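Sequence design from tokenized structure. All designs in this work follow the same two-part layout: the structure record, then the generated sequence. An example of the structure record is given first.
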């Protein structure tokens, strides 16, 4: 288990940012969470990872603001990018 390799920017965010390339299966602690977040995919540097379940059509929240919507249900630890979210802009 590792720390300080993912960053939630705002307390309201439902995604965190990879501070380096991260590997599927690895576990990371986030902020005050007592349970580690297990990655379901490889996460490239600066890409987003879901930190809680996100339902289809639910807003993806980064910087405390919506940046897109989920195209389908996204599990905690899953890579969040253009393959499973659409831009709201």
């Amino acid at each position: 288990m590792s720390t300080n390799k993912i960053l939630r920017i705002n307390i309201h965010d439902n995604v965190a940012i990879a501070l380096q390339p991260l590997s599927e299966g690895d576990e990371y602690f986030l902020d005050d969470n007592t349970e580690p977040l297990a990655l379901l995919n490889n996460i490239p540097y600066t890409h987003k990872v879901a930190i809680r379940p996100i339902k289809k059509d639910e807003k993806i929240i980064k910087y405390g603001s919506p940046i897109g919507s989920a195209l389908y249900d996204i599990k905690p630890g899953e890579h969040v990018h253009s393959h499973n979210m659409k831009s709201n802009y």
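The longest strand covers residues 65-70. We note this feature because it recurs in several other targets discussed in the main text.
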